[in-house]
Amino acid sequence: MLVLLALGAGLQETRAPEATSLLGKPLFTPSISPERTAALEKDLAAAEAVLDKEPGSADATIWVGRRMAYLGRYRDAIGVFTTGVSKHPSDPRMLRHRGHRYITTRQFDKAIVDLTKAAALVKGRSDEVEPDGQPNAKNTPTSTLKTNIYYHLGLAHYLAGDFAKAADAYRLCMEHSKNADMQVATAHWQYMTLRRLGREAEAAAVLAPVTQDMAIIENASYHRLLMMYKGATDAATLLAASRAEGLDAVTIGYGVANWHLYNGRKEEARTILTEITDEYRATQWAGFGYVAAEADLARLR
Question: What crossing angle do the helices spanning 220-229 and 247-262 adopt, rounded to 10°?
Answer without folding.
Answer: 20
